């Protein structure tokens, strides 16, 4: 989660909502990314999507069975859907997101019976620092 | 929808689940793509994601306000989430997807009060041909 939090801090410096993610494959961090939709002109460039795509490309495989995804904020519906498609085994996240989250809020995506795969989910990890980064970012823009 | 259906047929020839999409910006088709997660080693490479990313990159903007997205199959949660993030104005889709769909099935994503943006939605367009492509594909793999 340290690597994900550092990526989130980088996002804030780039004017992006500070969220970061890291992907662990066979005990090794193989992808780290910051949220970057503005910078990359890509509405899908959330931190989770970026590490999943980078890891899948690096490994040359469509699915990442057994992988762990660490992210500083509760994933949205898009990212939770991608996590299921990628067959991520374990999801660890920091702050919860009452507005945009889709894991413990809104559509509660991983409880949907139609979902092909659901990861183990562990929330609240590094929550204090993750939430502080977000609060500082939005306070500065008000 | 013709362009999206042709892309879906291409996907089938490449051994991918036959789904295709096209993105219309200011009356012009600016992106067409087939579903390609296996070919691209990218679990997020659904047709909808690919046209959104291509269009946003081509236009150099994060959001595609006013755009229309045409896709041959009801979007999943990941794609519906991306459609909301991209601020797509109108979504036209072909076949409905009781197993993986997130628009009229499962999480009914565009009815979620937490969603930032919801497009106008028109289903069942080109449904017969879209569903026939999918049926033929899955029949051949059984």
UniProtKB/TrEMBL annotation, chains A, B:
Enzyme class: hydrolase
Domain CMP/dCMP-type deaminase: 1-104
Cited InterPro entries: APOBEC/CMP_deaminase_Zn-bd (IPR016192), CMP_dCMP_dom (IPR002125), Cytidine_deaminase-like (IPR016193), tRNA_aden_deaminase (IPR028883)
Cofactor requirement: Zn(2+)
Keywords: Hydrolase, Metal-binding, tRNA processing, Zinc
A single MF term (Gene Ontology): tRNA-specific adenosine-34 deaminase activity
Source domain of life: Bacteria
Co-factor: note: Binds 1 zinc ion per subunit.
Catalyzed reactions per annotation: adenosine(34) in tRNA + H2O + H(+) = inosine(34) in tRNA + NH4(+)
Binding site for Zn(2+): 46, 76, 79
E.C. designation(s): 3.5.4.33
Catalytic residues, chain numbering: 48 (proton donor)
HAMAP family: tRNA_aden_deaminase
Function: Catalyzes the deamination of adenosine to inosine at the wobble position 34 of tRNA(Arg2).
Family: Belongs to the cytidine and deoxycytidylate deaminase family. ADAT2 subfamily.
Protein name, per record: tRNA-specific adenosine deaminase
Species, as recorded: Sphingomonas kyungheensis
Gene this protein is translated from: tadA
């Amino acid at each position: 989660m340290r690597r994900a939090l550092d990526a989130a801090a980088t996002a804030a410096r780039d004017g992006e909502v500070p969220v970061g993610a890291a992907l662990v494959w066979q005990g090794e961090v193989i992808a780290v990314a910051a949220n970057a939709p503005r910078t990359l002109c890509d509405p899908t460039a959330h931190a989770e999507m970026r590490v999943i795509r980078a890891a899948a490309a690096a490994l040359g495989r469509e699915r990442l069975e057994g992988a762990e995804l660490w992210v500083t904020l509760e994933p949205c519906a898009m990212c939770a859907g991608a996590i299921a498609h990628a067959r991520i085994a374990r999801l660890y996240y920091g702050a919860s997101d009452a507005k945009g989250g889709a894991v413990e809020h809104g559509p509660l995506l991983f409880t949907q019976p139609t979902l092909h795969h659901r990861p183990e989910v562990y929330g609240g990890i590094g929550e204090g620092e993750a939430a502080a980064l977000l609060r500082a970012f939005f306070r500065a823009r008000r």
